[in-house]
Each structure stands twice: as structure tokens, then as C-alpha cells.
Design goal:
This protein has three domains: 196 residues, Growth Hormone, Chain: A, CATH 1.20.1250.20; 243 residues, Growth Hormone, Chain: A (Up-down Bundle); 82 residues, no CATH class. Strands 1-2 form a two-stranded antiparallel sheet. A two-stranded antiparallel ribbon has the order 3-4. The radius of gyration is 23 Å and the shape is globular. It has 528 residues and is mainly alpha-helical. A hairpin with a 2-residue loop joins strand 1 and strand 2.
Length: 528
């Protein structure tokens, strides 16, 4: 099926607005956790549940809709997504309870997941000769949504330090999300011509799609989906390590189900697809999870304007993704991913040592590094595994989203907790031991806890509670306050190991393809 230049532009623009709308909603939710806590009288843990409700459905819906999008059709699917996104806005504006807000966040995640399940294969089908370039331009919409939404919120709703932000003042911001949502819904509604997936057009059966995905892909996806499912139901949270027990059970379920799936379809799947899915674990953490620590580092330089750091980073990402076609003329997606990893290594190490205005320079290097990761991985998967259709394309993205919550945030949090505890112990080890023996509590939780991450033990100290202990001298409090900002820097140095792993992985892939005669996209129509 061929499309005119104008038809391609309309489909790309509508898809762009769809993901942009999701980005707007995401940045709005990122701005109001403290406001939710005050408005609904809920704990930080419950606030985290609200934020999570807007995230984990994305990955689930991406995988599930990949199985039906070719049958349901792009048009009906994307209009379903717009319905859920509009519903989330309406609920956000009118509900006044924790439960109601959970459903608002949940429907936002469902809508976002369907959007990505549709627009990724749709645009790949339209721009078959420039898949990686198309993915980078399409996914410039995500940072565009953050720039649009973040600028609106910071200018018109955030206020200043003298006027506290309230939920009544904040929630009208969500009405701005209706602008791109309504626009893309209308554009898709009036569209008469939609592409057919490359797999479907070449009469490749769904069984072949499953074979491309294979038992290995199924094992990985089911493991992470299972872990998230058990987390939402608060299952298998006991025993040694809690998260460790849950992970082991999830692995058992995932591997056994993946083995059964592979046996039924008679395929283990493509090893290179499995490998790129594994690389999505450090990639997603390096791109998404490190942002929180970096924003804290920007505060001494930007003060109350530190929130603009997120907008600035998104603006860099948005701009560069539009011009991804330039470096792609000289290298394939793997080369671009390797260069991006090197930028991330330099940026993260520089951020961990820089101070003053130099932090801004290091921040720009870091922002450039994370720009091309996600869309270039999607481009690679689309070029090398076209028989996998929407399933392989969306699963690799879904695995990244799932693992950043399962491994990324907990990993960096545990690293910072470790360094916080180590610094505090250097100031007053005796008080730490005393508080631990007495099992002192703060808000009904231990101030000092013997925590662990997937079976690896570490000490967690609630720093705010520790600083309020009467035994501490003014000098000791000052010493701790000087130490704590440095722990974020140490955490970033550990985080820099992630792009190092990625650089090694992408280098291996480049060398492997070189041995096989060079990297070439697989074109199904030429395989017949």
C-alpha cells in the first residue's frame, strides 16, 4: 500500500499528538505528588501507588493490544485510547478521593499503552524505508509533551515559594491535555486510509509472529508482567527479602510458561531479540530512573527554578530526535546507540563531580546521551524482526517500562540509601547503633532498617527522622547535611555503570553483524 506525502504527514502528525498528550499527562502527574498527599491525607507510599497506577498499565496494554491491533484496526484502537485519556482527564478534574484518583491514573496508563501499541507499528508501516528515523521523529512527541505540559504548569500553576500549591489550583492544568487529545482523535476519525502491517501485507501468519517472539521472549515478558501483577496484589512479599521472593516466583512462572509457549510454537525465538530485550533493563534505568537524582543536583545551581531542568532536558531530546536522520546517514541504529551510551557515560560521570555552572554543561551532555535510546531500539527491532510485527516492536518497549520500576528505581534508591547510611555512620556510629537497638520509630516505621534488594542486604536510614534525634549536636547535624548531597553524586557514579554495560552490549552486536557481512534491515517483500 502506497501513501502520498500528505497522507503520511497526517498519520505521523496525528500519532505525534497522541503520544504528546500522554507526555502532557505524565508531566502533570510528576508535578503534584506532594499536593496529592496533602489533599487526600495519604502517605508517601499511597502517593507512589497513584503514580504507579499511571505507569504499569502502559506496558501491559502495549503487549496485550499488540495481539489484537491488526484485527481490531488502527482507527478503532486509537479512538479507544482517546476515550480512556479523556476519561482520565474528566475523573482527575472531578473526583475528590484517593480511590477516584487511582482510577483516573489507571485510565491514563491504559490510554497511553494503547496509543503506543498503535502508533509504533502504524508509523513503521508507513515509513518502511526509514524505520529508525521515523521512530525518532515520532518519539520526539514524548519530550514535546513534557515541554508543553511542564511549561504550562510551571508558568501558570506552580506559583512561587510564598504561595503553597493546592490541588484546587493544580487540577485545571489537566484541561490542557484535552488540546492534543481532541486534535488527534479528530484527525484519526476523519482519516480514510490506514496502512496494513508489513507482516500482514506479506501474508505472514500470526504463528510466525509468535515464533519470532519465541519462548525466550515470552519467558522474559511473563516474568516481568508476573512480578508487576504480584506487586499490585501484594503477593509473595514475605520471606527473605520480600522482593527477592517475588522475583524468584515470577522467574519460575515466566520461565516455565515461556518453555511451554516455546514448545507449543516450536521456537525459542530470535536470540538477538532476546539480547536487545535484556539490554533494555540498563537502558530504561539510564534514561528514566536517573532523572530524579539529576534534578536534585540541579537545585543548588537553579534554585527554585530546578523544575525547569526537566523541561530543558526534554527540549534537547525533542529537538535532536527531529534530526536523527543526519547521524543515521552515516551509521545504523546500533552505531547511534553506541555513541549515545558514550555520551551518557561522560555525562553521568561529569555530573557526579561537577559543581556550579559546569553542572549545566554536564547536564547537556547527559541529555544528548539519552536522546536516541528508546526510538533507536524500536527502529532496530522493526528493521531486524519485521515478522514479529507489533508484538516484538511493542514488547521490547514494554519490558523497558516494566523493568525501570522493578529494577531501576529500587536499585538507585538502594544505592543512595547505602551511601546515606555510610555517611551518617561516619558522623555518629554510636547513635545509629543505639537507635537500632531501641528500634525507634518515625511515623510507625523504623528509623533504621535492615533492608535488602533482591536478597542483597543494605542499611536504610530515614535521614529526616535521624536528623531530629535529640542526641545529635549542631555540628553533627551540619556534617550530615554536608554529606547527604554528595551521596546523590556517588549514586550517579554507580549509575554510569549502566551505559558502560550498554556500550559493551551494542559493541558486541556491531561486531557480530560485521562478522555476518554487515548490518542490513530485513525487508519481507524481498524475501519472497
Amino acid at each position: 500500500m502506497t501513501f502520498t506525502k500528505n497522507e503520511k504527514l497526517i498519520l505521523l502528525s496525528a500519532s505525534f499528538l497522541a503520544l504528546m498528550a500522554a507526555g502532557v499527562g505524565f508531566v502533570f502527574r510528576a508535578m503534584v505528588p506532594a499536593v496529592w498527599g496533602a489533599e487526600f491525607g495519604i502517605s508517601d507510599g499511597q502517593v507512589g501507588v497513584l503514580l504507579g497506577a499511571g505507569l504499569w498499565p502502559i506496558a501491559i496494554m502495549m503487549i496485550l493490544f499488540s495481539l489484537v491491533v491488526d484485527k481490531v484496526g488502527y482507527k478503532r484502537s486509537i479512538l479507544t485510547a482517546s476515550f480512556f485519556q479523556i476519561l482520565s482527564v474528566v475523573l482527575t478534574y472531578f473526583v475528590n478521593s484517593y480511590d477516584g484518583m487511582w482510577w483516573a491514573c489507571f485510565f491514563a496508563g491504559v490510554g497511553h499503552g494503547i496509543v503506543e501499541a498503535v502508533i509504533n507499528p502504524l508509523c513503521i508501516s508507513v515509513f518502511r524505508d526509514e524505520k529508525t528515523k521515523a521512530m525518532n521523529i515520532l518519539h520526539a512527541s514524548w519530550p514535546a509533551g513534557i515541554v508543553f505540559g511542564g511549561t504550562i504548569f510551571l508558568l501558570f500553576f506552580m506559583g512561587d515559594s510564598t504561595v503553597p500549591l493546592t490541588w484546587l489550583k493544580s487540577k485545571p492544568a489537566w484541561l490542557f491535555m484535552l488540546i492534543p487529545t481532541t486534535a488527534y482523535a479528530i484527525m484519526f476519525l476523519i482519516c480514510k486510509k490506514f496502512p496494513v502491517d508489513e507482516r500482514v501485507e506479506n501474508n505472514i501468519p500470526i504463528s510466525e509472529m509468535f515464533r519470532e517472539f519465541g519462548g525466550l521472549g515470552a519467558a522474559l515478558a511473563i516474568t516481568f508482567i508476573g512480578y508487576e501483577f504480584f506487586s499490585q496484589l501484594n503477593l509473595f512479599n514475605g520471606g527473605f527479602g520480600g522482593s527477592y521472593t517475588r522475583l524468584i516466583i515470577s522467574l519460575v512462572v515466566g520461565v516455565s510458561t515461556g518453555f511451554l509457549f516455546g514448545f507449543i510454537i516450536k521456537s525459542k525465538g530470535k536470540l538477538m531479540f532476546f539480547f536487545i530485550c535484556l539490554l533494555m533493563i540498563p537502558l530504561a534505568t539510564a534514561e528514566i530512573a536517573t532523572d530524579g537524582w539529576i534534578q536534585n543536583l540541579m537545585k543548588p545551581t537553579m534554585g527554585e527554578y530546578a523544575g525547569w531542568a526537566l523541561v530543558f532536558s526534554a527540549f534537547i531530546m525533542m529537538t535532536l530526535r527531529f534530526f536523527a536522520g543526519i547521524p543515521l546517514k552515516y551509521m545504523g541504529p546500533l552505531g547511534l546507540l553506541l555513541i549515545s551510551s558514550i555520551f551518557s557515560i561522560i555525562g553521568l560521570f561529569a555530573l557526579s563531580y561537577a559543581s556550579g555552572i559546569v553542572i549545566l554543561v554536564a547536564f547537556i551532555i547527559y541529555a544528548v546521551g539519552q536522546t536516541f535510546y528508546w526510538p533507536s531500539v524500536l527502529g532496530f527491532v522493526a528493521e531486524r524482526f519485521p515478522k514479529g510485527g507489533a508484538l516484538t516492536l511493542n514488547t521490547v518497549s514494554a519490558i523497558g517500562l516494566l523493568t525501570v520500576g522493578i529494577f531501576g528505581f529500587p536499585f538507585l534508591g538502594a544505592v543512595q540509601d547505602h551511601y546515606n547510611a555510610k555517611g551518617i555512620m561516619e558522623v555518629n556510629l554510636e547513635l545509629v547503633q543505639k537507635i537500632k537497638i531501641e528500634n525507634r520509630l518515625f511515623e510507625n516505621k523504623p528509623i533504621i532498617d535492615d533492608a535488602n534488594l533482591f536478597g542483597i542486604p543494605y542499611t536504610s536510614i530515614k535521614t529526616n527522622a535521624f536528623l531530629k534525634q535529640p542526641e545529635l549536636t549542631i555540628r553533627e547535624i551540619s556534617s550530615i547535611n554536608n554529606i547527604l548531597p554528595q551521596t546523590g553524586r556517588k549514586t550517579l557514579r554507580i549509575a554510569a555503570c549502566l551505559p558502560i554495560i550498554m556500550a559493551l552490549g551494542f559493541s558486541f552486536m556491531i561486531l557480530w553483524f560485521k562478522k555476518e557481512g554487515g548490518y542490513k534491515p530485513i525487508i519481507l517483500s524481498k524475501e519472497k
